[in-house]
Specification:
The structure holds two protein chains of two kinds. In chain A, about 45% of the residues are buried. A six-stranded mixed beta sheet of chain A has the order 6-7-8-3-9-10, with helices on both faces. A four-stranded antiparallel beta sheet of chain A has the order 2-1-4-5, with helices on one face. Chain A has a single domain, classed as P-loop containing nucleotide triphosphate hydrolases (Rossmann fold, 3-Layer(aba) Sandwich), CATH 3.40.50.300. By secondary structure, chain A is an alpha/beta fold. Helices cover about 35% and strands about 25% of the residues of chain A. The two termini of chain A are about 20 Å apart. The mean pLDDT of chain A is about 85. Chain B is of the alpha+beta class. Chain B has three domains: about 190 residues, no CATH class; about 260 residues, no CATH class; about 140 residues, no CATH class. Chain B contains 18 helices and ten strands. In chain B, β6 and β7 form a beta hairpin. The model of chain B has no long low-confidence stretch (mean pLDDT about 85). Classes of the chains: A alpha/beta, B alpha+beta. Chains A and B meet through α2 and α3 of A and α10, α16 and α17 of B.
Chain lengths: ~260, ~650
């Protein structure tokens, strides 16, 4: 079943007085199936972040359509958009975005509290997630007391606790050292194995080589995609590297 | 050329930080202005022509001192606030290769611009506003006469010196602070204090005890004379208690709330409670400042307004009769002369006496011991723990009250000033015990009081011989005193003329040392005195109000920047704009209305004490005081809410940027 459908997505930024127009997304079309683990790659300025913001309903497209589980995002009224985001999407950011005033536990609870859930239910949902992410012992600590990797795993727990349709990850390994990155990517694979759909934006080849499918964006369009098929991580890594070389030195569209 | 760059940097820095510096400049300008104005008025020669000029001058002198002290504290506090915000920026300059010496030069220019600008503009506005403030003062004092308004060179000099020093010292302090920190610390200057504050149970309890103790002593006071001493102790306790409770108590309560899972994990409370725990760490002192300042505004304005609105009540208490003559020579011969002169002069000016009373008496200051009164000296002196016994022949009692009581030796008629009667059968004064034949509830020459200054009795005895005996024993060589009081019917001019004539004849013709007080003559003095109190109350009230507004503004701005990131995260995680607005409103409202609530509680707790102090100033109309206080609180709350609304909007703009 298709979870996410993106059709002819277009985004044009206009400067305040309508002078210059910048085309961030020209024509992006792709779809994500239930249980998939997709990585989107591209250089800085290729439109990755714009795409993610639009998928997260933080920004509105100039043209085209996004369907999440068959529902057109543009039909969700503004009033409900925050609740919609809360219920259907989980986020993992490069800079963690944890609230420093909340303990690890409370940071994980945040979306549930916003949704008005009762405390016993929150606790019940949180415990298995925290255990599997290896942060159960840290629940009473505060963000400034734990390492970057632990912070990011807290953010993952926060994304998972709402049982979202889709997890959107924006450079999740960007602020982590290599060991913490490896650990986080292992967690992502584990989470994906339980059937959770993940869409990750990254320019780390290593991170992308963990995904099942890699999309390449260049100049606001999907330029190429690679399926893992039977490839091992190392092989996929090589293939991604090759593609990136072609991408940066120029080449034809393959989609 | 190289110097030019510092000036340029300083100017661009001030421009960049204008959101913080404009209010700072405005405050500085207003403070300079207010200091110049009050100082200029206090030293103005025009005051000499006013009735009661001495008291007006001393009240204004006191006000000048308060404004000066306040200016020091307040400008220092706001400067500190600004520096905290700019640490990062200064750290950046340091990292980019500016030495600390260069930074110092840059900051010197900044201070020069701010300081010189504030002083020049402040004095300028002071000169402009001075005329208006002068008019207000005269209007309050009740004199429409023209006056000499002059630009005071002395005033300008003192203002420039005072504020020049303040700005210089703050600059030194800033430089010292920068000198002692390294660039990395400066860079992170904005981010320190992320650690969760500890719960200070001991401090919470201490604060609570101090606050309660302050409230209790303020409400235990019975005697107006002791009220002033107690007032300062109570104020000190309450101030300290407020700071302790804001600093420690707030965090204690918030952590308790966090422990309550059902309350804490609720959409509306979750972010507020957790955010407040951090917010209180940095802002408790600021909020306590707001609270104390608000209390000061409320107390000064409400009491001074009461004093002015209760002028009639005050005059009635201070001068029970329109004309009162007190003579230290109260021998029968002197009394005859006084009575003659008074009657003659009153007739001459076509006036009539009403409600007259007269009495010959001896004042005895006595120590109360085992229910007995032990005389210590003759003459009334104020000791809150002693009693005054006014001993007089019963014939005057009969004359005053229109009765015909006959007393034997060892018998007396008694009147107590306190509402509670003496009630016993006997009264011992020295070695003489009197049987109380009658205790009267009314006496023409005195009134019962709910809270008298001190224990005061009127003891009417058989005749003058007993008075003479007391004099022989306790005050050799003195004579009884004599008091003659009455209301007058007739024109104002004639009353004054008669009073003057009586005074002149008594001194020149009869050589009797007596003083007559005509209420009208004193009314002007009292108007001046209490009018200058009101003026000062309003003046200081507006100064404190300005400070409160500014602190609130700064808090909102700085917290806005701090919360910006938090709200961005919340928005990303799935909080709608509406929810964010709600959460902000809730939190901000809590933060800013706690000081107001505490201020109102302080005022309520201080009410009885303030009422007592007003009694000391002859204002006994408690209802009037209640009305004035309620009015002041209401007016203040309205201003506070307006400020809150404006700054909350500013805060929202910053947070949702």
């Amino acid at each position: 079943m298709t979870i996410l459908e993106v059709q002819n997505l277009k985004k044009i930024y206009t400067t305040r007085f309508g002078g210059n127009q910048v085309e961030a997304l020209r024509n992006v079309t792709f779809s994500v199936e239930d249980g998939e683990y997709v990585a989107i790659m591209g250089e800085s300025g290729s439109g990755k972040t714009t795409l993610l913001n639009i998928l997260a309903a933080l920004d509105k497209p100039t043209g085209g359509r996004i369907k999440l589980k068959g529902r057109d995002l543009s039909t969700v009224p503004d009033k409900e958009i925050a609740a919609f985001r809360r219920q259907n999407l989980g986020f993992v950011f490069q800079d963690f975005n944890l609230l420093d005033t909340l303990s690890i536990r409370d940071n994980i609870f945040l979306p549930l509290v916003l949704a008005g859930k009762k405390y016993p239910e929150m606790e019940q949902r949180m415990i298995p997630i925290a255990k599997s992410l290896g942060i159960y012992e840290l629940l009473n600590k505060f963000p400034y007391e734990v390492s970057g990797g632990q912070k990011q795993r807290t953010a993952v727990a926060r994304a998972l606790i709402t049982k979202p349709q889709l997890i959107l990850a924006d450079e999740p390994t960007g602020a982590l050292d290599s060991r913490a990155s490896d650990e986080l990517l292992r967690q992502f694979t584990k989470i994906n194995d339980t059937g959770q759909t993940i869409l990750m934006v990254t320019h780390s080849v290593k991170a992308a080589s963990n995904a099942n499918r890699v999309l390449f964006i260049k100049d606001g369009e999907v330029f190429h995609q690679i399926y893992r098929g039977k490839l091992r991580n190392e092989e996929l890594y090589q293939k991604i590297s090759d593609t990136l070389t072609v991408l940066t030195t120029g080449g034809e569209h393959h989609v | 050329m190289f110097k030019g760059i510092y000036v340029k940097l300083a100017v661009s820095n001030l421009k960049k930080n204008r959101k913080s510096y404009i209010p700072y400049m405005i405050t500085s300008i207003l403070t300079v202005m207010m200091f110049y104005d009050i100082y200029m008025i206090a030293i103005n020669t025009g005051i000499d022509d006013m009735p009661g000029d001495d008291s007006v001058r001393s009240v204004l002198g006191f006000g000048t001192m308060i404004v000066a002290i306040f200016a020091c504290i307040f400008l220092f506090y706001t400067n500190n606030f600004l520096m905290k915000q700019r640490k990062k920026e200064i750290g950046l300059y340091n990292v980019l290769g500016m030495g600390k010496r260069n930074i110092a030069v840059m900051m010197l220019w900044e201070s020069l611009f701010i300081g010189a600008g504030s002083i020049i503009l402040g004095v300028l506005f002071g000169i402009l506003m001075g005329k208006l403030i002068f008019l207000i003062l005269y209007r309050i004092l009740g004199y429409g006469t023209s006056f000499q308004y002059e630009i005071s060179i002395q005033g300008i000099t003192v203002t420039v010196l005072l504020f020049g020093t303040i700005f210089f010292v703050t600059l030194l302090f800033n430089l010292l602070q920068i000198r002692h920190t390294n660039p990395i610390e400066l860079l992170h200057g904005g981010n320190v204090g992320e650690r969760e504050p500890k719960t200070k149970v001991f401090m919470t309890i201490l604060g609570l005890i101090m606050l309660v103790a302050g409230y209790v002593i303020a409400n235990k006071v019975e005697n107006p004379v002791t009220a002033i001493t107690i007032f300062f102790i109570a104020v000190l306790l309450v101030v300290l208690g407020t700071y302790a409770l804001f600093v420690a108590g707030s965090i204690f309560v918030l952590k308790l709330l966090r422990k309550n899972k059902k309350f804490y994990y609720h959409q509306r409370h979750f972010h507020s409670v957790s955010g407040m725990i951090y917010r209180m760490k940095q802002n408790a002192v600021g909020l306590a400042n707001i609270c104390i300042l608000s209390t000061m505004v409320l107390v000064t304005v409400s009491t001074t307004v009461s004093l002015n609105m209760g002028m009639e009540n005050i005059m009635g208490n201070r001068f029970p009769k329109e004309y009162m003559l007190t003579s230290y020579d109260g021998t029968d011969d002197a009394i005859r002369k006084i009575d003659n002169i008074v009657t003659e002069e009153i007739n001459r000016y076509g006036l009539t006496r009403e409600n007259a009373f007269r009495c010959q008496y001896v004042d005895v200051t006595a120590q109360k011991k085992d229910g007995k009164f032990i005389p210590e000296s003759l003459g009334a002196s104020f000791y809150p723990d002693k009693a005054i016994m006014e001993v007089a022949p019963v014939s005057y009692y009969n004359e005053m009250n229109g009765e015909n009581v006959k007393l034997e030796d060892g018998e007396a008629v008694l009147f107590t000033v306190s509402e509670e009667n003496y009630g016993k059968e006997e009264l011992t004064l020295g070695d003489q015990t009197y049987r109380i034949k009658k205790e009267t509830d009314t006496l023409a020459m005195a009134e019962k009081e709910a809270f008298p200054y001190m224990d005061q009795y009127y003891l009417f005895v058989k005749d003058e011989s007993i008075l003479n005996e007391l004099i022989k024993k306790y005050g050799k060589g003195s004579t009884p005193s004599y008091v003659y009081g009455f209301d007058l019917e007739g024109s104002k001019e004639n009353k004054t003329a008669a009073a003057n004539a009586i005074q002149t004849r008594l001194t020149n013709e009869s050589k009797i040392s007596a003083a007559g007080e005509l209420r009208d003559d004193f009314e002007k003095d009292f108007h001046s005195l209490y009018g200058s109190f009101l003026f000062l109350g309003l003046f200081l009230g507006s100064l404190f109000l300005m400070a409160t507004v500014l602190i609130i503004y700064y808090k909102q701005i700085s917290e806005g920047y701090e919360d910006q990131r938090r709200y961005q995260i919340m928005a990303k995680v799935g909080m709608s704009k509406k929810e964010i607005k709600k959460s902000i409103n809730g939190q901000v409202r809590l933060v800013f209305f706690i000081p107001l609530c505490f201020a109102v509680i302080h005022v309520i707790a201080a009410f009885r004490l303030m009422d007592k102090i007003l009694i000391l100033m002859n204002l006994t109309n408690t209802n009037l005081f209640i009305a004035c206080t309620a009015g002041t609180v209401l007016a203040f709350a309205v201003i506070y809410i307006v400020v809150f609304k404006i700054t909350a909007r500013e805060y929202y703009k910053i947070v949702t940027k």
